[in-house]
Amino acid sequence: MRRGLPQHRRQARVFAHAPRRDDHVINAARRSVRWMYRRHYLHAYAFISPVIILFAIFRVWPSVQTLYFSFFKVELVRQRLTFLGLGNFLDMFQDGVFRQALQNTLVYALVIVPASAALALVLAVLFVEEFRLKELFKAVYFSPTVTSTTAAAVVWWWMYNPQYGLINVFLRLLHLPPQPWLLSSHQALSAIIIFSVWKTLGYNMVIYLAGLQAIPAMFYEAAILDGASPLARFTSVTVPLLAPTTIFIAIYNMIFALQVFDQVFVLTGGGPANSTNVVVLELYRQAFQRYRFGYASAEATLLFVIILSVTVVQHVYSRRFEVAY
Amino acid sequence: MRGRAMLVAVLAVMLAGSASFVGAQAKTTITLWYPAGDVAAGPVSPLHDAALFGPFEAASNVHVEMVGLDYDTMEQKIFAAAAARNIADIIFIDHSWASGFLKEGMLEQAAPAMAKRWLAAVSPDVAALSDFGGGTMYGYPQMGYDVYALTWNKQQFQEAGLDPNRAPQTWDELRAACRKLARRDPSGTLTRVGFAVRHVGEPHGIVDKFAWALWGAGGDLINDPNALRGGQVMFNNAAGRSALQLVLTMLNDDKCTSLNFPDPRAAFLKGIASMQISEAVSIRARQPKEAPNMPWQSGWGMAVPPVPKAGDQPVTLLGGWLFSVPKGAKNKEAAWKAIEWLSTEANDYAIAAKFGMTPRYKSNWTKEPFKSDSYDQALLKIAKYGRRYPMNLGLDGVMQALGAGIQKAWHGEASVDQALAEAAAAGNKAIADAAK
Predict the structure, then answer these.
(1) Cβ distance of B430 and A290 shorter than 8 Å
(2) I want to staple B168 with a disulfide (CB 3.0 to 4.6 A). Which of A47, A211, B173, B362 is the partner?
(3) Predicted TM-score (pTM) of this structure
(4) Which residues of chain A are within 8 Å of residue B187 when distances are taken between CB atoms?
């Protein structure tokens, strides 16, 4: 044994030329990188990395931070966090205003999703037929989708005006009594739902049109040979074969319906008497009017859990309706 | 000779260099955020005048850069900017936002000596707006009263057989006038309300236009108007009940007002409401454009809101906008200097006179044009009965709760007692939460 070297350095020299477990790992990693390079995986990741980085910064990180904040009293200006455990969540369940906002949100989502989907399906079936100015009408029905929600809501706010609004003008022409619409706590939520159905109808219609065009004609031909009426063809062929499309529309619309904000903010501000208050509006108020960021984060977290649960249930349930043709 | 020419050239270069150095010496730039649009206490905001701070800039080497923000989201933007440590040096804020900002420790306190001088020199209502308790100030109110008044349409009064130059003084008179002024179509639907009420939109706005009745009846939002923390709501009582009941009676028994009408100011200016109570300045600012045939004095009048019974003390809401300095401001000293320049007696007079606003100093009220201006004098009379909101840190939650309670009672979703009890519970919780 040579003198002058410490024990661990001597051991390192002894094992320097022996194959080590680390070498295997390094070699495997090198082989993996070379393979990825050859298969252009590295290029692909390089191309999508800006999106991934931006998504992580502006979506993932704020979401994680929201979850974290939900367990604290957050004073942003003072940069002070006070741990509350589940305090914000317990407060939330005792808060009557939040409970009403949650109830309104669920009612809104449960009405708008089937209503919009059903109307869109009817329209899509009509648009499968050939008639004059078909494309123009399609564009008309689709136009609300590409219109800013805020701008459209301002127009509808005027239409709902009890004195001068277009809707009450039509009611008067039909000798029906004018309605208060957004000014009534009994009608305001319905008025917002009508607006939202109008806004989402076009998008759903286009998705259904795509679904309808994918159904092979042979199913309809067979049904006709069997003597099925148009209604029977619709209920026994169209509706079942459109199940995957319907599931997609249900999930997609439900996710957005549970996050409703813009139209409520513009049309009613949550009133009258909280009758149109929804979860996102309520958490906005808690955060930016009462500066309770921790509490607002807890509300956002609960909404996230609800949306995730509904989506998972819908997704699992949708497997029962999978079709192949 | 050549040497002298050289010397002259060198001197010329030095002179030019030093002159350009002095000329290029950077001015300190401070920013001032104000709400864009005509929302703040006057038909024309002086903050829309880019030359407003011209004399101050010339004398101080400080440049004031004015930035207009969207009013609806201004409060949120200020807060977000404060949290991000990137806020303006001067913020022009609605008085009702101050409690929320104080809760977060965002506002810088004005120098006590200056505050003392100011409070002694300005009119009592301006002093009430400035004083956050014990002579503490967190900003200087702008010139121009933002006071709530009963406004009435004189032509409609005359047509209904009422004295066009006398506003209803008591609640009974208000109801009687309301009944006479209301108009219906052949089907019985109201086409014009005698008195318009605010019952939709942000709960704050509903409380703003209800406070006169609550205060007039002896109630309040919170028991101690100067305490920042703690306290109890003061509307779940006989005063709160009678104030809510007044409008319910006009709705259901007198049938002279309606929940189907738009914002009271809009309804008044469109001629479909004969009376309403809101910010006088808003009617003053909007009337020339929206109701040109209803000019001030001959077309419309304003007075302090009516009281429950003759002999009671009228009360009305006195709001205002403050020039404040946030704690996160980068140039606090220059910011306070700019605000103090705006708030000198001479500038108070000059700016108020130029922009048609009311002055803040007692001494300026004795000068023309304010001394003889009928509108200014009418405002001054009303402002004597002005009361500001409590400074409690839970004020926002209290207003949200009371606003929702008012809506529930008027929309028939809850009895008056039930609505007030719910609002009181939510309001007290907001006070307690804010005090934690």
Answers:
(1) yes
(2) B173
(3) 0.79
(4) 177
String of DSSP letters for B377-433: HHHHHHHTTEEPPP--TTHHHHHHHHHHHHHHHHTTSS-HHHHHHHHHHHHHHHHHH
B362 alpha carbon, distance to own chain's centre: 20
> CB distance B413–A273 less than 8 Å?
yes
Q: Which residue has the tokens 């005063």?
A: B239
pLDDT digits (tens, 9 = 90+) for B322-369: 999 999 999 999 999 999 999 999 999 999 998 888 899 999 999 999
Tell if the CB–CB gap between A272 and B430 is shorter than 8 Å.
no
Q: Å from A315 to nearest chain B CA? A: 38
User: Does the complex come out with an ipTM higher than 0.90?
Assistant: no
* Chain B contact set for A180 (CB, 8 A): 259-260
Mutating which of B96, B99, B101, B260 best tests the A interface, going by the most A Cβ atoms within 10 A?
A: B260
- Band of the pLDDT at A21, cuts 50, 70, 90? low
- Residue of B79, B184, B290 to mutate when probing chain A, most A C-beta within 10 A: B79
Q: Are B314 and B384 in contact (CB under 8 A)?
A: no
Dist. CA B82–CA B96, nearest whole Å: 18
pLDDT tens-digit series, residues A51-103: 999 999 999 999 999 999 999 999 888 888 999 999 999 999 988 889 999 99
Cβ distance B209 to B159 under 8 Å? no
Give the three-state DSSP class for B68: strand
Nearest-by-CA chain A residue for B408: A273
Asked whether the beta carbons of residue A288 and residue B75 sit closer than 8 angstroms, the reply is yes
